[in-house]
Amino acid sequence: MTNTLNTLAGRLIDDDATVRRLAVIDLPYSDEEDIVQLLLPRLADSDALVRIEAVRALEGFEQPDVVQALAPMLLDGDVDVRKAAGEVLAELKEPESAGPLLPLLLNGPFEVRALAFHAIRALRSPLAFAPAMQSLRDPEASVRREAVGVLGYLKDPAAIGELAEVAANDPEVEVRRIAIGALGYASTISVLPALTRALADRGWLVREEAAQTIGKLRLSLAIPNLVHAMQDDYWQVRVKAARSLGLLKAEAGLPALVASLSHTISNLRKEAVIALGEIGDSRAIIPLENAMNDPDPDVRKLSRLALIAISQALKA
After folding, report:
1. Which of 104, 110, 129, 166 is most buried, taking the most CB atoms under 10 A from its CB?
2. Helices and strands (H, E) in the chain, number of each type
């Protein structure tokens, strides 16, 4: 053990919490092999700020003893410690790290369960499937939201029916939105009713997600619904509908897309131009030529590229 580490080791147990906290911050830069063993005891420090720094300092040390020690930090009495632990655990990459998190998915305060689902999501552990399905009916929206996120990552076809139900009936907009996004992994036409229903959802964020997911899944049967969505009160929904009409090469969307070239929001004009180029219909040539005079330089550039794309499509 070097003199530097001896000094740090002494500071880590100093009576002054500020000294301990600064020592924890300095420790990862000491290049010593036993950093983890010095940090782990500080997770039980009496001072919350020291515990927070110890949690953060352990990020990247994805080894069994670290994960085993960090998981219970989601139960810490200090909310900021719990949040820090959740953030660090969410960066885990190894599937076997899911083990210590599994017991927390269905037990404890709802904040802990939500943090545990959030942390385990990217690990794609099949063992999280059953707890996530069970938590779709949890009384707390934050738990339902994170459970839906886990199912979206797992991409298990067995969850499609439940996710469609959540997308239609959950009382929280954000939960419905994430459920719609989670349906983006589906490879069957069975999700079409849920997505078209979502295009009429009372929450514009849900409608926006539905418009995007329809294009992602290339659901051509929903083209009439997307055309109708081009009249949505929110331009953000129209942007996603335009994007999907382009991906689907939907000639039926031509009038609505051309009309959008005069919209006050430049982002919508850009997406309409791109979609018209993807559709490749000669009827879009004159409107796109007019768009070459748009005040937004990006719209002008995209219009030129769209005209080139249409020209090439007509020659093919």
Report:
1. 166
2. 19, 0
